[in-house]
Each structure stands twice: as C-alpha cells, then as structure tokens.
Amino acid sequence: MRVTTKMINNSMMNQMSTNKNKMFGLEEQYNSGKKIQRPSDDPIIAVRSLKLRSTISEVNQYLENNIPDARSWMEITESSLKNMNSIFTKAYTDMEHGANDTLTTSDRKSILENLKQYKEQIYHEGNVDNAGRYVFTGYKTNNSLLFDRDEDNLDYEITQTFGRDDMERIQRLTGTYNVTDYDSDNPDADMFKKPPEMVADLYRIQLGYKDIKDGSITADSITYTTTDADGNKVSKPINTLGFTVTNIEVGDQDIYNVQDNEIRINSQTGEILFGKNVYDALRLQEDGEIGITYGKNSFESGLVKPEHYYDCKVTNKYGEVTDYKHSSQDIYYEINFGQKIQVNVNMENVTGNEFARKIDDLEEIIERVGNIEKDIEEIERKLKDSGINEEQKKTLNALKSQKEIELSLENDNMTETFENGLYYIKEYQAQINVSVANLGSRMNRLDLVEDRLDSQKNNYTELLSKNEDADIVETYINLSSAENIYNASLQVSTKIAKTSLLDYL
C-alpha cells in the first residue's frame, strides 16, 4: 500500500487531536474534581448520581423538616401534658382539703376559687399551638379548643353519647324550707314539722354544658341502643319504653321528686334525671348506649367548643350550617421512606369536658350550703330580737331545727362531691400519664429513626462521592502523563511536517 504525505499528515493530526482531547478531559476532571462534566461522558455514572442525589434529597427532607417538625409538635404536647398533670396534683390537694368537714364557708369558697382557676388553666394548656396550629384539636388545627370570647351568634345542636356507666347515682334534698316561709304575723311551728328528706334512688346523666336551650330535649331527643330480632343494633326513642320526658322550669322546688317511670330535664344545670325504673331499664340494655341531642346558643369565654368532643351541627348568624362528626383524629408525619409516626394527642384522651362539670357540681353544692348557713344566721338574728313572742320563737326554733338538718345532710353531700372529685382527678391523671408515656415512646422512636437517617445520609453521600468525584492524585498523574504525550506528539509532528521531497534529492 502506498502511503502518501497527506495520509501521514492526517494521521498525525488525528493523533494530536486525540492526545489533546484526552489532556483536556483530564484537565476538566482536575479543575472540577468530578469524573464527568456532562451525562454523555459516562451515562452509567450520570444515572447513578441522579438516583443517589434524589435519595439524599429525600433523606434531607426527613432530617431537616419532617423530623424537627414532628419533634417540635410532640415536645410542645409533652410540656403541656406535664403542666396539666402538675395542675391536677394541686387540684387534688385542694379537693382533699375541701372534703374536711371542719371548713368554714370562707375556706370552701377559697378552695372553690382555686379549683376554678385550675380548671381554666388546664383547658388553656389544651389550647396551645405549634406555629399557629392547635395541637390538641385533631384535624381542626386552625380551630381553637376554647371560645376566646363570649359567643351568642352560634346555634349548636349537640349530640352526646353515653354508656350505662355514665348514669350516676346522686342524692338531693327535697322538702326543704326557706326563711321566707316564716310568717311573723301568723307563726305556726307545725308548718315546719316535716323534716327534709334525701332522695336516694335518683340517677342522672350530666351533659357537657349547663344552661342549655329550654325545651331542646324532647322524647325523641333521648335514644337508647338495643338489638332487634335480626341481631342488628338499632337506636330507638326512649319513649318507646313507656317513659315520660318532662322539662322542669328554672327554680322549681320539686325538681328532684322524680317518679320511677319519669325522665326530668334540668336545662339550667344540664342534668338528665332518671327515675329508678328508667335507670334499671337502660342499664339492662345489651348495648347500654344512650344518645342525647340538645341545643345551646350561648357560650362564655373559656368554655370548650363542642365540636372537639361531640357530634354537632352549628348554624351561624348567616344561616350557614357546619356539620361536625366526632371521631379519633390522629395526625401522622412521614419520618422515613414509607414510615409514619403519630405526633398529636387528642384532648378527649387527656381530660374530657367532665372536669369542668365536676367543678360546676362543687360550685352548686357550696352555694347551697352557704345559703343554708345564711338562713340559719338570719333565723338566729330574729331569735335575738327582744320583741318576738313565745309562738314566734317556737316557730323560728322549729325552722332553725329543720335548717340544721338540711345543713347536716348537705354537708355530707358536699363531702361526697369533693370525694368524687378526687376520683375523677385520679382518672384524669392516669390518662395523662398514659399519654405522656405513649408520647415518650414515640419520641424515642423518632430519635432512632433520626440516627438511622443520619447514618444513611453519610452512606449515600460517600457512595455519591465515590461515584462522581475524581481521585485528584490519580487525575494529576494522568494529566501530567497526557501532557507529556501531547508535547511529545507535537515534537514528532514538527519533525514529520518539515520533511519534504527536497530532503531526498
């Protein structure tokens, strides 16, 4: 084969270009520290780098955003729960003190004021937020737990569900007397002959709120759950059992004389009173579930919003209706690939609205005892009046004797109410302790996941470095070698390029 000068020159230029490109590529690797500058340089390295970078980005999302957000939510929740537990401990001490029979009216009122402040603070602890999102209100993170002002522009239709154990036995006085029953012009000791009595067979369900709408509870508003002939659970109105429902007017002195087959509604105190036969019939139902629907359209500042505890329909002043269905509302954060963790605690799992109602019970009984003591003091003042005659004195002493019986019975009732408060506080603290322990376990799990993600991030970062980072020492050696080869090719080329036909003549 004939090799021409042009062929030699073309081959020479091709080799020089190859050597230059190789040197240029190594120079780019050395300057950038990367094995490739564009995907076409090595598609395998490029694809592997994309996958590793995507994985590291997801890990960073968990480490830098999701996990810190979840930890912040749980830390705020834990702090609030511990504060609640501390407040309940103080309330328990005051309840124990309140159960002491030797307290004066002033002492009891001081204890009551402390308990009311504790109650308010407990629910305010449940109203805390994390970056503007309320932590104890389930999915309704933009809806505060409490009314922040007096509210009378919302009309609530509330449905509460009770179990058979929620029907509690209470005792109330009947046949009591007032100082106004004494007529100084017509004194008659015999009118105070019959002593007051404590109604023993009295049962009640206490609604979540007092001062409910008058007449909002009817025979159809109270239902019970039973099993039909086909074995299905059905809800039926209470009057299908043959019981009557009566709404009692405010101030009715005869409110606690409940007949055996009667249900009485005390809208002022938010109590559903059951006669003995009603209690027995409901207690013996297989399911034992009782539903009560009632209305309320006036709320004081600091009261719990019903939608956080109960099913309810809310109508605003424009006639717009919002329907809330109560359910367990657990909020989960994704903290790893396909791994989620619950960050919230629902307020109903900590303390229900029942605690506020137990304080209402104490307020009512303390007020009743205080009123009786005032009546006795007034009677004693009348007895000290030098102008009264023997018949008036006899009548006043008879009235005083009955009021002292009332005081003794109500003091026993008050002591029992304080003792019941102790029981409920212990229950609430047990619930809080369970919630705190559960939260602590989740936080430990979060720490473990974070440690693992840190390790994964380091591993992926190392793999990415091995995949795309150039070995600087090796690259420098290769670059020096390529530069020497290129320079040598230049020198050889100059010798070949200047050779011509004249050199052979």
The percent range for strand residues is 15-25%
For the biggest β-sheet, the strand order reads 7-6-11-3-12-13
Could you name the ranges where pLDDT drops below 50 across 5 or more consecutive residues?
none
Largest sheet: 6 strands, antiparallel
Query: Radius of gyration over alpha carbons?
Result: 42 Å
Distance between the termini: 23 Å
Question: Judging from the principal axes of the Cα atoms, what is the shape?
Answer: elongated
Q: Percentage of helical residues? A: 40-55%
One letter per element, helices H and strands E, the order comes to HHHEEEEEEEEEEHEEEEEHHH
| Total E-strand runs | 15
What key phrases describe this protein's structure?
single chain; 505 residues; alpha+beta; 6-stranded antiparallel β-sheet; 5-stranded mixed β-sheet; 7 helices; 16% strand; elongated
How does this structure look, described?
This protein has a domain at 148-328. The chain starts with a helix and ends in an 8-residue tail after the last helix. The protein has helices at 5-32, 43-98, 105-125, 276-283, 354-383, 390-468, 472-497; strands at residues 129-130, 133-134, 155-162, 168-174, 197-206, 222-227, 233-237, 244-248, 262-266, 271-274, 290-296, 311-315, 321-324, 332-336, 339-342. The protein is α+β, with helices and mostly antiparallel strands and 505 residues long. It contains seven helices and 15 strands. The protein is 49% helix and 16% strand. A six-stranded antiparallel β-sheet has the order 7-6-11-3-12-13, with no helix packed on it. A five-stranded mixed β-sheet has the order 4-5-10-9-8.
